[in-house]
Structure formats: structure tokens, C-alpha cells
Amino acid sequence: MEFSEIGFGCGDVGGLMVRGEPADQVRAVARAMELGINYFDTASRYGGGRSETNLGRVLKELSADVFVGTKYSLGEADPSDLKAGVIESVEASLKRLGREQVDLIQLHDRISSQT
């Protein structure tokens, strides 16, 4: 399977996967898949994790075989142990998504001389 040329963003800007109605979320994701979109992008920060939770629920309901990317956030992680912060964030995302793995993980924080 190959990534679609465009993906479905599940962020705060449009708000559907954060604040939308469950039936609308299912319809939108199903329609995106009908149109050939098979990459869905979310993040732990979108709606305080609601985007991941909602996307996971919708994909399970649709029995969807798609690519999922998320972003980890270091938040209050101890700068001297970033590895533990990454692991904690990714494990929480996987739990919210209801998945054993994701296809792409990206850093969702700025990098400075402090990190």
C-alpha cells in the first residue's frame, strides 16, 4: 500500500475530529477513504488527545486499513531524560488511537538549546 498524495488532517483548525459529532466524523473519514485518501494525521495536542481518541474510534468502526501519523509532545518531560518523555507520549497516543503502532511519528515541539 502507498500513501495517498494528500492526507486527512485531524487537527484543531477544522475542528471536526476534536469538536465534531461522532456521526459527522465517521461520514467524513469514510468519504475521504472513498476518494482515495489513506493517510490520517493527528497529534496528542489536538484537543488534548480528543483527535486521537476520535480518529481511533472512527477507524475501528470503519475497519479501516490506513496509514496513521501522530506527533509526540514532550510537554513537561524532564529535559535530562527526553527518551522517557518520548516513550510516554507515544504510548499515550497509541492507547488513545487504539493501535499497537502508527506509521509516522513526528516531534510537535520546537527544538531549542534547552532540549
From TrEMBL:
Residues in NADP-dependent oxidoreductase domain copies: 5-109
GO molecular function, one term: oxidoreductase activity
One term under GO cellular component: cytosol
InterPro entries found in the cross-reference section: AKR, NAD(P)_OxRdtase_dom_sf, NADP_OxRdtase_dom
Protein name per the record: NADP-dependent oxidoreductase domain-containing protein
Species: marine metagenome
